[in-house]
Amino acid sequence: KTILLAEYAPPAYQVSTIDLEFRLDPHATRVTATSRFDRMAGAAADAPLVLDGAGLRLVSIMIDGAPVGPDRYDQQEERLVIRGVPAGFVLTVITEIDPAGNTALEGLYQSNGIFCTQCEAEGFRKITYFPDRPDVMARYRTTIIGDPVVLPVMLSNGNPVADETGPDGLRRIVWEDPFPKPSYLFALVAGDLALHEDSFTTISGRSVALRLYVEPRNADKCAHAMASLKKALAWDETAYGREYDLDIYMIVAVDDFNMGAMENKGLNVFNSKYILARPDTATDADYAGIEAVVAHEYFHNWTGNRITCRDWFQLSLKEGLTVFREQQFVADHQSAAVSRIHDVRVLRAAQFPEDAGPTAHPVRPDSYIEISNFYTSTVYNKGAEVIRMLHTLIGEDAYRRGMDLYFQRHDGQAVTCEDFIRAHADANDLDLGDFFRWYVQAGTPEVSVDTRHDPDAGTFDVTFTQTLAPTPGQPVKQPMVVPVRAALIGPDGAPLPMMLANEPADAPQAGALERVLVLSDRVTRFTFMQLPERPVPSLLRGFSAPVKLDTRAEDADLAFLMGHDDDPFNRWEAAQTYAIRVIHRLIADIGAGRPLVLPLEFREAFTRTITDDALDPALVAEALTLPGESYLAETMSRIDVEGITTARQFVRREIGRSLEPQLIALFDRLEAAEAGQPYAFETAAVGRRSLANLCLAYLGAAGGAAGLERAERRFATATNMTDALGGLLVLADQPGELSQPAFDAFYDRWKDEPLVVDKWFMVQATASRPDALDHVLTLMEHPAFSMRNPNRVRSLIGAFAASNPQGFHAADGRGYEFLADQIVALDAMNPQIAARLVGPFKRWRRYDDRRQGMMRAALERIMSRKSLSRDVYEMVTKSLA
Ligand code: ARG
Ligand code: ZN
Predict the structure, then answer these.
(1) Confidence class of residue 878 from pLDDT cuts 50, 70 and 90?
(2) What is the Cα–Cα distance from 418 to 407, expressed in whole angstroms?
(3) Cis amide prior to 121 (ω within 30 degrees)
(4) Which atom of ligand 1 is nearest to the CA of 293?
(5) Ion ligand 2 — residues with CB under 5 Å?
(6) pLDDT tens per residue, range 227-272
(7) DSSP category for residue 567
(8) Does residue 370's CB lie within 6 angstroms of at least one atom of ligand 1?
(9) Burial 152-170 (b: 16+ CB within 10 A, else e)
(10) Coiled-coil stretches, from where to where (predicted)?
(11) Closest by CA position to 83, among listed 71, 67, 94, 93
(12) Which residues are catalytic?
C-alpha cells in the first residue's frame, strides 16, 4: 500500500500523557500503557480511535478503567480500531512482546543481552498500541521493572523520579521526561553496562551530567566520544544559540543496530561503531565518524526533538538540517576543506546515483510504501545541500535570523518543510517560493557553461544553461534556483574584481573577488567588465550547489586551477575532473584496442602536487586520490565494468611505478615525522597519515619491492589502526603468500574486538582477487560471521556488492545470484537491512545487455518469493519498474 503526502490528515485524538510500565523478560515482556486521549476540535463525535500496532500479543484494553470487549474493537494487521470512545478518556492497553526473538532490531530488542529500543520511524507500534505518528506528542513517564542482578542499569528518557527494590527482589525505576515528544523518540535501555561519566556547564550556568554507557569490556574506548559530545554542546550554544534542556544526557552503545545512531530524547542509542575508539582499534576515519555522529545526534535535540516533523514525508526537515549542522561543526573542528571534499564525495558516490536511478525521489518525497526505505542519501545529504544553498543565497546573518525565528515560532511543534522555509522568508522579508522547488523536484540538475572573452571590449561572458532530466513520476521540471559561488582568476593566479555590466559601482557584490551568481532560469548569462585578459573562471566554489557542472574547461585550464585556484575545494575539483577525463580516454583506448599511455601532462601535474612541500598533506592526499569506481560509473551513460577497473588500475600502477622514488621519499619523510609520537586525532597528524597511506597505496599498486616492504613493516609495527590498516590494504591486493599471513595475524590479534573484526571482513570483501566471490562465500562460513549483526552483514555482503565491482559484476553472473540469495535470507530476519542490500542492483539498466539480463533475473527471482517484507518489495518493484 502506498502512503501519499496528499492524503495527510491530522489525528482525530491527541495524547497529552502516557504512562508506560515494562516488566522486562527476554521472551515475554509485559507492557502496560496508560494514556490520556482527547478528541481534537474539528473531529467527528463518532470518529473511531485508530491505534498502530504490529507483532503484539494483546492482553487487555480498558477505557477509564472499564474493560473494552472485542465487540468494540477491530484488530487488523497493523491496527487497532476502537469505536464509540468518549471525547476525553484514559486508555490502558496491556501487550506482551518478545525482545529476544526480535531480529528486525526495531521496537524493543536485545543486543548481547542488553535490552534496547529503536523506534524511529515506526518501531513504537511494536511495543504497544498507540498513534505511532510524529504529530502526536505526549509527555512520557516510564516504569521499568527488572532483576537488578541481571540488569543493573535501567534507563529511559528524562530524569529518574523513583527507584526502589521490592521484597520480590525486583527493582522498579521510574523515569519522567518533561518535554512532550512523538513516540519515535521514546527509548528504553536495560542491561549490564559500564558508565563513563563527565559533566558540562551550559552557557547559562546549568550543570548537565553526561553519561556514556558501554559494555564493561569497552570501558577503555569512551574518551573520544565523550570529548566529542562536550564539543557539540558548546558549539550549538555559540553557532545557533541552542542550549541543552535536561539535567542528564545519556548515550548507550550497542553492537546490533540497523543504522548509525538514534537521537531519542535525553537517551541516544548508538551503533557501537560510532562510539568506541582507542588508537589501536579505530582509524582516523572512525574517530572522525564518531565526532560527527555524536554531534549529529546531539544537534537533533533542537532540530528534530524540540521541533519535529509533522509526518514522515518531512523527514529532511530534521535530517537535512541536522546533517548540515553536523557538516558546519565538523568544518569548524577538522580541516574545513577536507571535510567539504568528503561531503561531496559522499554525495556523488551515493546521492547522484540515487537521483539518476529508479528510486529517485525529491528531498521531500510525496509517496512511500515503507518509510524505512526513505532514510536515503537524498533526504540526508542532498537535504543538507539544500540548507547549505539557502545559507549561501541569503548569507550567514539572514540564515541565523531565519533559524532564530524557526526555533521561536515552532518550539514544541511538529511541522513541515514549508514552515521551515517560511521562517527564513519571514525573518528576512524574502520570497523563497522558487527555491522550494529543491524540496519537490527529484534529479540532479546539469549545468553547462559557455564563456566568451572579448579582449577589445574587456568583457567576459559566462552563460549557464541548466537542464533537469525527467525522473520517475516527474516528466516535466521547472528550472531550479542554483547559487554558483564564482571567482575569475587572473594569469598570475590572483582573483580579479568581478564587475557586472550595467551594475552600479555600489551594488552589494560589485567588484568583489568572489560572488554568488544566482541561476534561476534555464539560461542565465553574466557579462563581466574591465577584463582585458581572459581570466580562468573558478565556478561552483566549495560545491555551492548539488549539480553536475560541465565547465568545458581545457585541460590546460584544469591544470592551472589545480595549481592556482585559491579555493581549496576547486583545486581538488580540478584534479578530479582532470583525472576523470584521463580515465575516460583510457577506457576509450581499451575499447579500441589501443595501447595505454598515461599522459605526460597529467603525470607532471601529479608530480608538482606531490613534491610541493608548501601544500597541506591532507589536501595533497585528497587531490591525488582518484575518483572511486562508483562515481566513475556514474559519469558513464553505459557502465563499462572492465574498462573502469582496468583504466583506474592502470593509472594507479603507472603513477606508482613512474613516481616510485618521489613516493618513497615522501612516505619515509611522513613516517619519520610520526615516529615516536603518541597517536592524536589532530588535523595535521591525520593529514600526514592519510598522505603516507596514499603513497603506500600507489607503491602497492605498482607492486615494487620497496613499496611492499614498507607496507609489511607498517602493518607489523604500527601502533595505531590507521597505519596498520594502510599496510593491510596494500597487502590485501597482493598474492596469497603475502596477503594471507597478514589476514591471519590480524584476526588472531583482534578476534575479540568486533569492530576490528568488521574491518577484517571488509578488507577481504573488497580486495581485488580473481576468486573474490568464493572467498566471500568461505568467509560467510567463518565462525565470526553472523547474519544477525548488521555491521557484519555490511562489512562482508554489503562491502562486496557495493565496493568490489570485479567480484560483484563478474561476467558469469554469480555475484548477482549471491546477492539475491542473501537478500532473501535476510528478509526473513531483518527487512531494513535486506532492503539496503538491494541498492547495488538499482543501476542494472546502465550495464551491458548480458549483465542487465542477469541482474533483472536476480531481481525477478526475489520478487517471485511469497511473503516479502514491504521494505524489500518496494525496493525491488521500483528497481524493476
Ligand atoms: N534519526 C536517526 C539519525 O539520523 C536515524 C534513525 C533511523 N532509523 C531507522 N531505522 N530508519 O540520526
Ligand atoms: Zn539524523
Answers:
(1) very high
(2) 14
(3) yes
(4) 12
(5) 319, 322
(6) 999 999 999 999 999 999 999 999 999 999 999 999 999 999 999 9
(7) S
(8) no
(9) ebbbbbbeeeeeeeeeeee
(10) none
(11) 71
(12) 297
Specify the DSSP class assigned to residue 532: S
- 740 CB contacts (<8 Å, ≥6 apart)? none
Ligand 1 pocket test target in 262, 326, 869, 875 with most atoms within 8 Å of CB: 262
More confident position, 743 or 564: 743
Q: What are phi and psi of 109, to 5 degrees?
A: -140, 175
CA distances from 104 to 1, 119, 430, 513, 784 (A): 21, 12, 46, 54, 20
CB 783 within 8 A of CB 816: no
> CA-based angle 391:330:729, to the nearest 5?
130
Longest dimension (CA), the chain: 96
Please give the distance, rounded to the nearest whole angstrom, from the Cα atom of residue 225 to the centre of ligand 1: 19
Confidence band for 621, pLDDT divided at 50, 70 and 90: very high
Is ligand 1 within 6 A of the CB of residue 261?
Answer: yes
For residue 53 the three cell numbers come to 500496532
Q: In the block, which residue shows the cell 561531503?
A: 343
Ligand 1 atom 7 nearest Cα: 120
Atom of ligand 1 nearest to the CA of 375: 11
The one-letter code for the residue type at 275 is: I
Distance CA 855, CA 845 (A): 9
Question: Is the beta carbon of 319 within 6 A of some atom in ligand 1?
Answer: yes
pLDDT digits (tens, 9 = 90+) for 172-193: 999 999 999 999 999 999 999 9
Q: Is the CB of 375 under 6 A from ligand 1?
A: yes
Backbone CA torsion sign across 757, 763, 766, 769: negative
Q: What is the DSSP letter of 512?
A: B
Ligand closest to 790 (CA) is 1
Q: In this structure, which residue's CA is closest to atom 2 in ligand 1?
A: 262
pTM over 0.90: yes
Grid cell in block for residue 508: 552589494
Contact 260, 271 (CB under 8 A): yes
Q: What value of ipTM does the predicted structure carry?
A: 0.97
Peptide bond just before 574 cis, omega within 30 deg: no
Which-ligand-closest: CA of 268? 1
Of 669, 756, 696, which is closest to residue 720 (Cα–Cα)? 756
Cα distance between the two ends of the chain: 16
Among all bound ligands, the one having the nearest atom to the CA of 322 is 2
Torsion of CA 733, 737, 741, 743, to 10 degrees: 30
Tracing cell 610541493 back to the chain, one arrives at: 612
